[in-house]
Batch of 2 targets.
Target 1
Amino acid sequence: MSTAIGGVVVLDGSVVPDREEIGNKAHSLATMHRLGMPVPPAFVLTTSVGKRCAGGLPDDVWADVLAALAHLEAATGRRFGEELLVSVRSGAAQSMPGMMDTILNLGITDAVEATLAAASGDAAFARDTHRRFRESYARLVGQDAPADPHEQLRAAICTVFASWGSPRAVAYRNHHRMSHDGGTAVTVQAMVYGNLDDRSGTGVLFTRDPQSGDTTPMGEFLPRGQGEDVVSGEVDPLDLADLAQRLPEVHAALLDAGRALERHARDVQDIEFTVERGRLYLLQTRVAKRSARAALKLAVDFVGEGVLTPAEALARIRPDHVATVLRPVLDPEARATATVLARGEPACPGIGSGRAVADPDEAAFAGEDEDVVLVRHATSPEDVHGMIAARAVCTEVGGRTSHAAVVSRELGCPAVVGCGEGMLAAVEGRTVTVDGTAGEILDGIVPVRTPEPSEVPALARLVAWAKEHPDAVAADHPLVAL
Amino acid sequence: MSSDMEIDEFTALHGLVLKKAGQAGEVAEVLGATEAEVAPALDAAVAEKRAMSGRGKYMVTPAGRAWLDEQYPVLFADLRADPGADAAYAGFEEVNRELLALMTRWQTVNVGGEAVPNDHSDAEYDAAVLDQLAKLDSDADPVLEVLAGLVPRLGVHRRRLAEALARASAGETDYVSGVRVASYHTVWFELHEDLLRLLGRTREP
């Protein structure tokens, strides 16, 4: 089967075009297809095509789009304008702000809404889907969505191509000295639904634990969930064991896919998936973000499994990973006997000790000569100069998204926020130790100790490799100095 | 160059508390005035012992602070009685919650439930946050327009936010949440304090 229709590429696994031609996300989809993964069918208008579409979509390109759309209809067994809805998204080789956001559920009309309501048994969901489509289309395309799904698609594709030239995208490329010639691709993909029945849902899989680096996969699954439900965290999802119990075949297929993708990428994957009526679809995979501790353990484990060479593993360790795992911690014995004066929400990690001062001016002044901790009911812009001088910051009210928390993280100043009314009275004037990692204010100066490299799992091995492979790490990398 | 603003002693002192210790130029920036317009009013405040100065910087005295606190309810009695101002402030609070959550996403990423500092190695993640910041800025604009209609001086914050957004999304990423520059968060924080003082409200937890 031919997969390239003019400049429109159907992602069916037969080819994986260059990243520059189809953009990052479509490249990832093409790779998943190539590996035989279940991915909702999609096609891409390449960056080369985009260069011909500055003044609107030429008719020959539109003819190619219609041919590619026929592939999507054949693959899904659904007709566009009846049941098949698609997403339309931009994709450049390098992500940048100012590009058009994704439009979901394109193709929905009053008739499709009725079909969707019947299929899901959820008229409110169908109505909401339609409303959200109309709103996002109007916002992104700059006009009301036409009733004809084909017109919706044509205008949306044009808008994505045009967004390459948006003032914000242009300013970003200028600042980063990037070429303006690259252009964006457009990916059109069939929508799948996680809310159709009890054998449907949506979730994420990490092929290993990104926090600890343990080899056990972890993930979340939200039965009857759709799209951003898991990410938004508004509903408590189930874990993988629950998924295994409810949908054992899906669970097995998901873990198989995760292992294959991890092996292919030679790194831990963060995979978004949807199950539609018992059928698994992978929506996206990317390299998982990880804690510093996990970064160390994973690098060593991958060498042990023969996936990476020691030199490759070293290249994955950044200086801040090492700094983070060697960050001073409270001496466990001293901590065990210390008195907790107040507890709150940890807003910025680290330990800071000093005299607790409630006046930001005093903190700014005294902070030049002695260690002070700024303690406030809440913080205002006037407090910032006191925060700059302080070893730690505590507030009575506000959470980890308060102004105080934002400023303390910016300063790298350990912070505990939202300690509750009465914290000031309990703390002011005393010498205290603030543990911004645990969210505690302790009485007195609690000694800290810096972990020995030998105590940190995996670190000793990496240090030894750094000595054996001096070319693999920068001379000023902390692994070299240890 | 003149901004054609009348900077009286009250306005200059109000600008000074938004900036804390500051040079006349910094106070002028937060008020949308010029240094030449602000400096005489600050010097007058120093003569009244409502401010102190040294090494080119000004600071409000406790007496000046008390005097300011007496002025707000008098000068802004009409504003405080205006239901339109209440509604606009409620709109501001709504965007404020989103903004602070967005700033937190810019600074930290979620790793298996743990907040880990964003090392800004993921261009896609950062671009998405910057796009959301642009969207939030356009959501905030009508609210700020209403407020600037009630107190014209507040219009300066819209211009300052637009400037911070432009610099941040072009790639000067310190202009998202940096403390030492007029970043989006710095300006927003000052705007928030400005509103709280005019409206006589306290910070929501």
Target 2
Amino acid sequence: MTSRTPFDLAAEVGARLQAADDRGLNASLHWSEDLLKAEAERLVARVDPGVLAGMPVAVKDNFVTRDAPTTCGSRILKGYVSPFEATSVSRLREAGAMIVAKTNLDEFAMGSSTEHSAYGRVQHPLDPERVPGGSSGGSAALVAAGVVPAALGSETGGSVRQPASFCGIVGVKPSYGRVSRYGLVAFGSSLDCVSVFGQTVDEAARVLSVISGHDANDATSVEEPPMDVPLRPSSLEGVTVGLPREYLPPDLDPGVRAGIDKAVEALRRLGATVVEVSLPHTKYAVPTYYIIAPAEASANLARYDGVRFGPKLSDEASDLRGLYRTTRGTGFGPEVRRRILIGTYVLSAGYYEAYYGKAQRIRAHIARDFTTVFEGGVDVLFTPTTPTTAFRAGEKTEDPVAMYLADIFTCPANLAGLPGVSLPIGRSDGLPIGGQLLAPYFQEVPMLGVAGALEAVIDPVAEVR
Amino acid sequence: MKIGPEEVRRIAELAEIAVSEDELPALVQQLDRIVGYVAQLDSVTADNQVVAFVPGPQHSALREDVVRPTPLEPPPAAMAPAWREGYFTVPRLSAMEDA
């Protein structure tokens, strides 16, 4: 408990948000003194401060809220205010959190660098020339810059773990179905997961616990109670950690490799048994993902047509199809248009089975790889979160496939619906390296226990070479 | 499968997205690169008997079948860009009928 009042907390976080804006992070899309004051008043009126007791939390701008616009980083939703609120945001408020900002993102969460926002790119907090990762780059940057201790993001292919790795913070993607997707603007419905950033494993776990649990408004949320907050074990005796060889290729960035080697030493010192394992379909995860996700996106984003959602961006269209095409052609940015076109192509007559049908079957093989390893006695897998540290802005924007490969170690867990966490394990040339733990379905608690134990013995800002 | 300008025009029409002739060459090149990349799955032997994987619960949790008030407090008219006599107004449908 803090002795500061909610108004003190609101004023402090307002000053930090302003400082972040002043330094040009461009991480927030919507925040205001009035909204902070309203949140403070709401908390003051409570009898019970709640388990989060005034914790300031930022929310990616693809969660709908009623007190601020929800743009999804897109021109097509500029100024849109939802008539209802996402379940995860409502649960945060009920637990005493203060919702302080809506954060910048790659348009409709499509991207790995937060350069594809209609409202400008987000800067990396440690190096303004670099990207913070994406698509939840605004949330990651605010946590990494110390503006908030925790933030909500969303994952479809790694959009929380990848920016957490780039920014040197913790990012947790829960099992598919652990957290309600109600009010998270849909991108790839069989992949989308509400996910959490924290400055520490404990902060991320506390937020995840609050937002987890069944929600009648989401038929894909599993009928389970909220997740327990894990205790941090002092020893990993009896825990078997698998190192998948496909995640440690010979051409892995040497700094990332050195960070992984140091972290594996730390796991062994904690008492864990470390074994090499194989996930043979890993190399097909990115092409599989880039068929399934765009296919689902092309269907989900059909509603943004200037009639059902989105402003009418043409006064010249003489008929309805002309209105649709002009609105969507000018309202969506280049990456969203590319993905809708790819999704439309792979679902179109004559191509559906060759692309989408095949990808769905390979997805089953990818999921079975994980099941086989976990059934063979491995408790958690440990891998690099990303093949490199944060790259420079503009480095990959001209080659979409190069950008997609930034998700190579994260998207397999999304395809398989499994939980994962990225935590900082050191630095290479001053830039953070992320280590990733993956666990069986609904085994977040032991996974976060291992993450907490590793976090306690590793220096996240030490150079690894 | 090679993606050319005609294919991109066809997909854009299906997707209801206007693409100008100026932006077509770059789009053709990018979509061809992406489709060429994902086509590597052609070489994978995927068992046709494998059931498509769907994560999450094995069954959907159904709500009680009772009428509840809608959580949408603002009426549709408040959210509509154009509204007349209880209906959304949109441009003429003529092109849809011709298609």
